[in-house]
């Protein structure tokens, strides 16, 4: 089945490569040729879902695409997407045995496709269920469950969102390190983390001074979640073995210019172990290949050696130093500026 799907993708003029990756996969253009990179260690289901996700973005022009003119026709794009969805739903049904009670909302969410394809997923799943059980009325095909637990066994691992021991949800970076989606109930734990390391975290970051209790973190979450809704921000809490250790974020996001700035902080107990460098690499992968950004920037105090090293280790280019641009503890501070372009990140990934 994967060979058939891959062959169909290649017929569209898109190259598929199976390589060693930290993430499941991503797409881009290399030497003006559209290409999809897939983690060679994925199982069949995850490979199929990842291929579907990336091809849908290509065909629907979500980001830069360099596909032959014959695929610019809307009907061609629609039929190609429908074909991919049919094949992936077939594989998912083999794995999870869909029934008339299947929660299709969970499937739509897990596939993470462009929103206008949701109806295609619904239609194709309805046809699959009708053929499988001889149901004629597709209104009777689905019963909506309130509990996500009913459908948890077939949530796609494309996103790799799994429950933690504290019932947070995470996107693994590796076997120990994960991004967590911010939740208000983690505010107390995050405040305790900051409060236990004020001297280190607050040396270069102003927010520590105004962080007085857990309500400060709740207010920050509200601000960033509002930014997420407005597509100007993205915030993720960094966890190691289910323990909160820091935060990473995108801010100043401009979807017209496809750019954003990265921010990050880490508790001193976990410094100099490569955790933040690995987290920022994963964030860059997500920003370039899921959000469609083209340019990422990092600004670091010249005296913040660790922060500057994170930028350099991830291939960011040093632009220059902005003199006396900020005041911290009554002293003027200089900031180093770095940038990373999607094409440079893509080329570096292909070279590995």
Task: Please characterize this protein's 3D structure.
By secondary structure, this protein is of the alpha+beta class. It folds into 2 domains: 2-154, no CATH class; 162-351, 3-Layer(aba) Sandwich (Aminopeptidase), CATH 3.40.630.30. The protein has 12 helices and 12 strands. The chain has helices spanning 2-11, 44-59, 74-96, 104-111, 118-133, 187-195, 198-201, 207-210, 214-229, 275-289, 305-313, 342-351; strands at 15-19, 25-30, 33-39, 162-163, 169-172, 177-180, 234-240, 243-254, 259-266, 295-301, 317-328, 331-341. The strands form 2 sheets. A 9-stranded mixed beta sheet has the order 4-5-6-7-8-9-10-12-11, sandwiched between helices. The longest helix has 23 residues, at 74-96.
Identify the notable features of this structure and list them briefly.
nine-stranded mixed β-sheet, protein-N-terminal-alanine acetyltransferase activity, Aminopeptidase, alpha+beta, Putative ribosomal N-acetyltransferase, GNAT_dom, Ribosomal_N-acetyltransferase, three-stranded mixed β-sheet, 24% strand, protein N-terminal-serine acetyltransferase activity, 12 helices
Overall tally of domains: 2
Mean pLDDT: 79
Low-confidence regions: 62-74, 137-165
CATH superfamily of the largest domain: Gcn5-related N-acetyltransferase (GNAT)
H and E string: HEEEHHHHEEEHHHHEEEHEHEEH
Instruction: Tally the helices.
Output: 12
**What is the alpha-carbon Rg in Å?**
22 Å
Keywords: Transferase
Protein name: Putative ribosomal N-acetyltransferase
InterPro entries: Acyl_CoA_acyltransferase, GNAT_dom, IrrE_HExxH, Ribosomal_N-acetyltransferase
GO molecular function, one term: protein N-terminal-serine acetyltransferase activity
């Amino acid at each position: 089945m994967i060979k058939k799907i891959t062959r169909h993708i290649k017929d569209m003029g898109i190259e598929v490569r199976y390589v060693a990756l930290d993430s499941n996969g991503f797409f881009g253009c290399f030497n003006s040729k559209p290409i999809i990179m897939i983690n060679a260690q994925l199982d069949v289901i995850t490979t199929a879902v990842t291929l579907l996700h990336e091809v849908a973005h290509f065909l629907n022009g979500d980001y830069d695409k360099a596909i032959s003119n014959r695929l610019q026709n809307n009907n061609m794009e629609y039929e190609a997407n429908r074909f991919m969805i049919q094949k992936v739903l077939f594989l998912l049904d083999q794995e999870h045995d869909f029934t008339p009670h299947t929660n299709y909302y969970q499937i739509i969410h897990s596939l993470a496709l462009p929103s206008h394809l949701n109806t295609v997923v619904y239609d194709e799943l309805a046809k699959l269920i009708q053929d499988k059980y001889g149901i004629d009325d597709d209104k009777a095909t689905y019963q909506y469950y309130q509990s996500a637990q009913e459908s948890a066994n077939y949530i796609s691992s494309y996103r790799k969102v799994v429950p933690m021991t504290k019932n947070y949800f995470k996107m693994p970076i590796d076997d120990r390190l994960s991004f967590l989606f911010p939740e208000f109930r983690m505010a107390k734990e995050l405040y305790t983390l900051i409060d236990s390391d004020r001297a280190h975290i607050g040396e270069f970051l102003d927010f520590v001074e105004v962080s007085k209790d857990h309500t400060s973190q709740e207010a920050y979450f509200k601000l960033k979640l509002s930014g997420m809704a407005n597509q100007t921000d993205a915030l993720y809490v960094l966890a190691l073995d289910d323990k909160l250790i820091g935060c990473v974020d995108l801010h100043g996001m401009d979807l017209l210019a496809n750019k954003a700035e990265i921010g990050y902080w880490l508790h001193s107990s976990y410094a100099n172990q490569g955790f933040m460098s690995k987290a920022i690499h994963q964030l860059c992968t997500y920003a370039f290949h899921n959000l469609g950004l083209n340019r990422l920037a990092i600004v670091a105090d010249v005296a913040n050696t660790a922060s500057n090293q994170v930028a350099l280790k991830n291939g960011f280019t040093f632009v220059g130093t902005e003199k006396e641009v900020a005041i911290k503890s009554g002293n003027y501070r200089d900031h180093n500026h770095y940038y990373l372009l999607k094409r440079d990140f893509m080329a570096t990934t292909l070279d590995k």
